[in-house]
Amino acid sequence: METTSSSGNPLMDFSDNLADIAGRIGRSVVAVHGRHRMPSSGVIWRHGVVVTAAHTIRREDGIKVTLPDGRTVSALLAGLDPGTDIGVLKLDGVDLDPIDSGDARSLKPGHLALAVARADELGVSADFGVIGSTGGSWRTWRGGQLDAFVRLDGGLRPGFSGAALADMRGQVMGICTSALMRGAGMVIPGMTVERVTDELLAKGRVARGYLGVGTQQVSLLDAWVDKMSLPFSSGLLINSLAPGGPAEQAGVLIGDVLIELDGKPCRDMNDVHAALGSASIGQQLQIALIRGGERHACSITVGERPQRNACR
């Protein structure tokens, strides 16, 4: 919702509009005490539901939330999704108005944006800037899928992870996080927040496929490319195996080079993540490897990725 008052001074009108947006959104922004020292921010996304940045939640019990009226109440952890850095908390007996969300895909580089946080006893904090770059759907380094790529022009101040990111209409485009790109703040789009929140409230987790391998991208020898008539020149070197994991059970060895998953090229981790959605869990996946300079094939039963396991 835009403000319509005019003082005849464009800069003053602009400044008043920013303050109005911060004030209105601040009524749905809370402080989340889920780690030591500085709290993070969170947004009342639905009635009784707070969304925050998952990386700021360091414990499962004893989480507190400071409300806009200054009260501090207990929150129940509904679930965390490290892949998208979304954490969902439930509040009992608290009925605050949720934010008015918009479509982050409408953002373009250079658009003005306002981050609204509540990370300390001083109340609402705001940080004004521009959108640095945007793009289509984007897979994070942790394997989660964001519905749009939205990078802020710069990093986030302490306590602003989990803050609401609004456009100049006062619509919340998503929540801020510092955990998905080194040195830059990112926006987790509202569409992604909605989708992941549904799954966390229903199941407490977001299920993703899991092979149980650690990998490193490598360039393939020209001799291998020619011998196997490969239309690509990179693969993934297997440098670790989770004990008892799907790959180890299928006979994959450290030193193998993964080149295909279900008949599709496997050149980098994006190709692996693309093949390991929730629908793949329990399914047989045909893979092709290079072992000792020869092509080798085997079948892996895809597992469900442990929630706190670094292997993919």
From TrEMBL:
Family matches, as Pfam families: PDZ_2, Trypsin_2
Keyword Protease: yes
Domain PDZ, chain residue ranges per copy: 217-293
PANTHER family for this protein: SERINE PROTEASE FAMILY S1C HTRA-RELATED, SERINE PROTEASE HTRA2, MITOCHONDRIAL
Gene3D superfamilies: 2.30.42.10, 2.40.10.120
Name of the protein this chain belongs to: Serine protease, S1-C subfamily, contains C-terminal PDZ domain
Source organism per UniProt: Paraburkholderia diazotrophica
Cellular component aspect of the GO annotation: periplasmic space
Keyword terms of this UniProt record: Hydrolase, Protease, Serine protease
Gene Ontology molecular function: serine-type endopeptidase activity
Signal sequence annotation: none
GO biological process: protein quality control for misfolded or incompletely synthesized proteins
PROSITE patterns: PDZ
Disulfide bond in keyword set: no
Record family assignment: Belongs to the peptidase S1C family.
